[in-house]
């Protein structure tokens, strides 16, 4: 499915920065064009949730943070800890692309996202770009992009331990360490645990009275960043999380069947690895990265375990990205990239037999040109997908800053949603 969008707006430069000393020129974003830019140079509605915002909000989960963002609605299947659907600008949740550190989540066969694998203690910022970015990211980026950027960089020294309790027998504990082991080697390490007996997230009067739908989540993070030279870094980040969440399938008696009291549980196990190199010199920045993500999902009646699951679903995703950014002059920025992705899915035979895979290769170019108070931003991308063939998307925007910190913007572009693995099989 392809969509073409045209928009005009009168917008102030905005970010959710609580520190009044931070100006828009100092706030930088990387999500809009996959290159670092001042937020005042981006011709798209962008919201940045900073680390200060996170700490002041007292939020315990990513969905709670996203509720702070204009134009976003959150839906959750079951209680807290369940799979979350994010709706942006009234569109479907599958039209929102979610990234962690710029990498797609391996969730190509569902519309929801498991945000429980990302403790807020490990998040530095969340960048939300509203509007189509298909010419930058390819499929799924129809209504917007959410990029969750984790903490820990060379030179930082963070030691954080926290614990808390709350209603519904909620308990949490987090450990996060980020420090330089040597003048070249930086390490990030994190542990997280939270648990709650929950509440009745789907009450069916007279059927599931007294039921509670709880969750339990544990995660571990290990990252290494090594400075090969003043211009070249290599890195590897690994993350593992395991969560169980309860949900309800109860229903009252009707003409279609008798009363049903059914409480179910989902076991979700996620493993991800990302490694690569980054190079910067004068007016050039380049990065080459490979990532692997795997999800294992088991569903069974509450009180059982994943060994007797009634439904299983395994997904894997391989990603390779090569990005090159050139500052050609004080007025012209050029960014080019290549993405390759292979999605794999295997379930219990209900929809697919064995392992089914699908690759996608995309190339894109973005140019940003500034002259006086006018900014022009153009992008084009071509995707070759094993299932649906080739597709070209484009985006064009122009902005005029007629008064300091206020800009008139006109934009048009195309975007598309590739069929998911379940759509095809």
Notes on the protein architecture:
This protein has a single domain (2-424), classed as TonB-dependent receptor, beta-barrel domain (Maltoporin, Chain A). 5% of the residues lie in helices and 57% in strands. It is globular, with a radius of gyration of 22 Å. The protein starts with a strand and ends with a helix. The chain has helices at 51-57, 62-66, 134-137, 421-424, and strands at residues 2-12, 28-29, 37-38, 46-49, 72-76, 84-88, 96-100, 103-104, 123-130, 144-150, 158-166, 170-180, 185-199, 213-227, 232-248, 263-281, 284-301, 311-327, 332-347, 356-371, 374-385, 389-403, 406-416. The protein is mainly beta and 425 residues long. It contains four helices and 23 strands. The strands form four sheets. Strands 1-23-22-21-20-19-18-17-16-15-14-13-12-11 form a 14-stranded antiparallel β-sheet. The chain has a five-stranded mixed β-sheet with strand order 4-9-10-7-8. Strand 18 and strand 19 form a beta hairpin.
